[in-house]
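In keeping with the milestone schedule agreed at the kick-off meeting, the structural modelling team has produced records for the first pair of proteins. Each record is given below as a sequence line and a structure-token line. The laboratory manager (R.T.) confirmed that both were archived under the project's standard naming scheme.
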Amino acid sequence: MSNPLTIVCSAKMGFGTFEAKFHPLVRLDAVGQVIVLRKEAGPEIPKIRYVVLPKLCKFPILNFLITPILLTWTVWKTKADLILAYHYIPHFYFAYIASLFSGRPYILGQTGSDDQLLAKLPLRGMFLRHILNKALQLNVPGRNSLEFWEAIGIRKVRVLHSTIDTDYYVPSAQAKAYDFVYTGRLEDYKGVDLMIEAANQLKKSLPDFRFAIVGYGSGRQRYETTVKNYGLENNVFFMGFQSDIRMWLQKSRIFIMASDCEGLPCALMEAMSCGMVCLTSLVGNIGDLIIEGETGFSFLPRDKQRMVELMEQLYHQEPTMQQIKERARALVVAEHSYSVAQDLWTDALRGIVNKN
């Protein structure tokens, strides 16, 4: 039997997203340990060990100088079989440099859509394409990203992104305390400002709706001020960071998000797996999840009027949408569960396992 693999990884990612990436990977018998270099320790996950970077790495220039050296040294010290990196800036760079000096292969994971914008730039885009084509594999969030990279000549691209625990995120018959819920970062690029504007407009026709905003971010204080100025304190509630996202999904009727850009959001998959009616902006690879009127509903980015119209429609019709809820969950179970990701990782690592 082959020796279990040691993987060294450079990644950041916040709560929820990190677990969605690594839980399926560490469940494989072929993986012995994953060593993650980051600026702070991450969540406790079996087989994962963290190397916390020096405090000097909080400065971007020093981070670019120090981290590739530490990554290479960790690969040598642990005799790692593979380097793994998530997100282009700066982690793709780090994996590429560590691979040059260690001779170990690397796999890269796209987490958002900004990588695709950078690929179109003249010099930086050319360097990015070089790094990607040297990789053992590029994992992307969905079909939209797959087609983009293949169209510009990137080889060895596979749809393998965040997946969720569909045995944990399940529907619940408990009473609903909120009509709408959003879970995620509190930033403008996530469309939180737009959701509050929509809520202000929605109040004219639905004065008693309740909207829970669950998450953290730099915009929270500003958004709370806006809610107060609009007189929405009895409609919009900021719940802050919550470790048990499932609880908030199960006590709400309709999931909503309005991002300007996304890869393939875990938050949306979690809501769909909980059998919720979902409303989202149609960006990135969300088209892989939302089949209009069948697994959910969508609007074009920043189309506030259409968003308000759909929120009002779903507020009234959600109790009659059982088939949509069931289809949404079935799609996530079939295509975005841990077991699906484990099969894809097994295939991706087969060549390294055989050499080992």
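The second protein of the pair:
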Amino acid sequence: MDDFVIAGFLGGLLGTIGDVIVHWIFVWAKVATSTTGHYLSQLIFPHAEVSLRKLLLGEFIHLLAGGIFGVPLAVFLIISGYDYALIKGLGLGVATWIVHIAIIPNMVSSRPFIYRTFNETIVDLITHLIWGLVTALILLIFRPEF
């Protein structure tokens, strides 16, 4: 696939699907009580109860954001080379985790009332690492160029 934007978005989207699946497994196993979809729903509708519609909207936005963040990873891999692509994907996964956990929540004026517990923070780290690995793996397979 030659188009780095399409490859990056597709890689990021598939990475986010992996993130969502694993996150819901942790919720099902009662290790965590909420997902990124819950959290995004709270950012969009502060202090409102999370309904199924709002949760689905939050998950949809999560999928879009993951796809969008796949494009910079594609550009970075094209510029820096595909050597160690999985490690580079892990690095971007950690960077997006830091933005998700520490920066965005402190930038919004009406902070969500779904606070992350220690377990949920670690689950978020794991799922962001999965996003980085899957996204980089897809890009490694397609190896898009400019």
